[in-house]
Amino acid sequence: MIMDFLDKPTKKFDVQQSTSASTLATGQVIRFEYDGKTKNALVLTGNWNGKLHALSLSSLSEANLESLLKELGDGNFDAISLRGKFESSVYAETKPYRTYSPEKVSQIKIVKMAPKKKSSKPKKKKQ
Questions:
Q1: Residue 50 — left, alpha, or beta (φ > 0 → left; ψ -120 to 50 → alpha)?
Q2: Interior/surface letters 61-85, b for 16+ CB within 10 angstroms, e for the rest
Q3: What's the CA angle centered on 36, arms 53 and 24, to 5 degrees?
Q4: How far apart, in whole angstroms, are the C-alpha atoms of residue 70 and residue 64?
Q5: What distance in Å separates the CA atoms of residue 126 and residue 124, rounded to the nearest whole number?
Q6: Contact (Cβ atoms closer than 8 angstroms) between residue 90 and residue 64
Q7: N or C: which end of the chain has fewer CB within 10 A?
Q8: Which domain holds residue 36?
């Protein structure tokens, strides 16, 4: 399965604890269950006209997910510019735009880059 690397222990990604659909924000990368299947998406809006609007990330490789998360950083994006940015980049797949019914969405987790661990090596003193 594409993106099954998120199931394995890694130093690159941090799949956080579950969150609710009401707390989702534009630009978040999420992993969730939908109709019994695991989905990965980039949130456009958590609730517009009663649906979760997102871009499917089902075909992203580990390297592309890492690049996407670095590119997004903690930036503030509106849904329209984010959709345009995504669709005109290397991340786009054929027709990535999706809407999801909230009653079928469960086990939402936010995917972020894992914090870099500080080196445990003592620093050399300058002489």
A1: left
A2: ebeebeebbeebeeeebebeebbee
A3: 30
A4: 10
A5: 6
A6: yes
A7: C
A8: 4-113
For the chain, the domain total comes to: 1
* Residue 87 belongs to some domain of the structure: yes
Tokens 């993106």 belong to 3
Residue 58: inside a domain: yes
Instruction: List pLDDT tens digits, range 19-47.
Output: 888 888 888 888 899 998 988 888 888 88
Upper half-sphere CA count for residue 114 (Cβ side, 13 Å): 11
pTM for the model stands at 0.71
What does the block give as tokens for 88? Answer: 């005109």
Q: Is residue 125 part of a domain?
A: no
Backbone phi, psi, residue 71, to 5°: -65, -40
Q: Is residue 126 part of a domain?
A: no
Q: Which amino acid is at 11?
A: K
